[in-house]
Amino acid sequence: MTTPLVEMDGDEMTRILWKMIKDELILPFVDLKTEYYDLGLPERDKTDDKITIEAAEATKKYGVAVKCATITPNAQRMTEYNLHSMWKSPNGTIRSILDGTVFRTPITIPSIKPAVRSWKRPITIARHAYGDVYKSVEIRAEEEGVAKLVFEGKSGKKEEVVVHEFKGPGVLQGMHNVDKSIRSFAHSCFKFAIDNKESVWFSTKDTISKKYDARFREIFDEVFEEYKSDFERLGIEYFYTLIDDAVARVMRSEGGFIWACKNYDGDVMSDMVSTAFGSLAMMTSVLVSPDGKYEYEAAHGTVTRHYYKHLKGEETSTNPMATIFAWSGALSKRGEMDNLPELVNFGCQLEDACFDTLNAGICTKDLVNLMEGIEPKAVNSEQFLKAIRENLERRLAK
Ligand code: NAP
Ligand code: MG
User: Fold this and answer.
1) Ligand 1 center to residue 75 CA distance, Å?
2) Containing domain of residue 151, as a range?
3) What's the pLDDT tens digit per position in 111-136?
4) CA of 336 to the centre of ligand 2 (A)
5) Which of 94, 130, 191, 364 pairs as cysteine with 317 (C-beta 3.0–4.6 A)?
6) CB of 165 within 8 A of CB of 149?
């Protein structure tokens, strides 16, 4: 390796897996260079969460990060960890510093059939993570009255429209988005599509929302002009369609594309797609910034229930797949950026060694009831990693 990976450690069961993955599957094979940031909750508390900001800044500097799942504190965590503040979600902090979009992709294997029969390849959901209903303001109208939407420009220009003349009680909501964020979202989607050689589907409801959703569509069209020739060269496409048409097409598709969604649509559709593909433990996640910086992680959390069992000395069978794929994705990307084909190859071989293991029926407990057509053998996390290591050694010896 030439440039270090930004390594962000995390919490609970995934922190345990993190070390096991490094010891078993990375360090014996790669001359690993990382810049280490401990985003575990105790360290975030100790540094007043500065460590999270530093890790995000390092990602901006180096371009590729790999992150372990972390606790987002709530009231119960305040007492559990004796925190002096309810620190914000590290993912939220990193995302706002990098101004990125999160892409979630299921890891698919032949023995786990998606709930939708036509799906043959993974579907990636790209969710715009800014604004709309998530940053809305609301009023509960208690009586008869008029609701207006007013914009007062800095120049003095004023625009005003009547939202509704209430004849009695009701509710109203004001929401917004900004061109800059929509543009970043579009850049991240097209960059990710080129990296993965997959088409982009983008859907909104611009027949109804003729200014708001239409602005999303316009910006996507504009930004796409910069990527058009690359898309043509790779034989992939960008198309826009209405959200309801998109839903129907997704259900009939074979998969293998990126579905870009506005914030709310992405929230809902990502849960639908991930559930239909089988398991949260088999979902990867990568944050891509508009200027091409990458942060790889698992989509699941710190698997608290397993951690408490682990602390009691009980054996756990936690699935490390998504975390391994965060490492393989990050190493391959680093290799690609630094022109190190051996590193890229290692990332691919690691993923294939995982597939060899699962395809032989060796899996963690969460997958046992999902597998069809083979005789699954449930093992604990340690045994699972050992089996992957054997397959990896076999592959690298060839
Ligand atoms: P979770 O850690 O994803 O776990 C939810 C449940 O899903 C687990 O109890 C387990 O089910 C199953 N599961 C998830 N990942 C698994 C794996 N790798 N192998 C086997 N089973 C797996 O979500 P959570 O319990 O809601 O959240 C726990 C903590 O994680 C919270 O403090 C939260 O803030 C944090 N979190 C972090 C991130 C992130 O850093 N990206 C994302 C989400 C949540 P069973 O218990 O039935 O086996
Ligand atoms: Mg959701």
Assistant:
1) 18
2) 137-174
3) 999 999 999 999 999 999 888 988 89
4) 32
5) 364
6) no
